[in-house]
Write a structure and sequence with these properties.
Length: 188
């Protein structure tokens, strides 16, 4: 299965979050999934993709997933294009990157991140809400990183901005184990 991962590209984040990227990349590869990601260097993006690549190299050829990077021109011009992708798709803009990743992936995982991660997450949720796709999105609430988002969603439901019963909604996981239970039981 192709799993898109949205996450931070900042190197200055705490080491425990960078280690989280290693764990997620390793688990994706060990479970035979392919990684779809932003195709850039830095932070969790590098850690997830490098851990994936290193783990995949220890597997038999037919058990290996691949790394698909989707990188916009702006990132290429800044010298941050990743070199570890099996397939690199170059696009013009960040909007095209989001659309291409949405098309390429079978499901989506959000790790801790900043504005870009939130933008990608909300793009998937909003497009799923209006029926453009039915691909699940999993939000890893590592150490409560997304607790405030959960609270905001509860408030929006309480005030009826979001229906009580949603046709499409994000699935939160509090641990890596819970996250991979969701991913590995999903049918494509």
């Amino acid at each position: 299965m192709k799993v898109a991962v949205y996450c931070s590209a900042k190197d200055s984040i705490p080491a425990e979050y960078l280690a989280l990227g290693d764990q997620v990349g390793c688990r994706l590869a060990r479970n035979g999934h392919s990684l779809v990601y932003g195709g850039a260097t830095g932070g969790l993006m590098t850690r997830v993709s490098e851990a994936f690549k290193q783990t995949a190299q220890t597997l038999l050829q037919d058990e290996r997933g691949e790394i698909i990077g989707v990188v916009p021109q702006r990132i290429i011009y800044s010298g941050r294009r990743a070199t570890n992708c099996d397939h690199l798709i170059e696009v013009g803009t960040m909007s095209e990157r989001k659309e291409t990743m949405r098309q390429e992936a079978d499901c989506f995982v959000c790790l801790p991140g900043s504005y870009g991660t939130l933008d990608e997450m909300f793009d998937v949720i909003a497009s799923g809400t209006v029926g453009e796709h039915k691909k699940p999105i999993y939000i890893l609430n590592y150490k409560g990183f997304y607790n405030s988002l959960r609270e905001q969603i509860s408030l929006m439901k309480k005030l009826q901005f979001i229906p009580e019963v949603e046709q499409y909604k994000p699935c939160f996981a509090d641990t890596i184990e819970e996250l991979f239970n969701h991913i590995n039981t999903q049918r494509v």
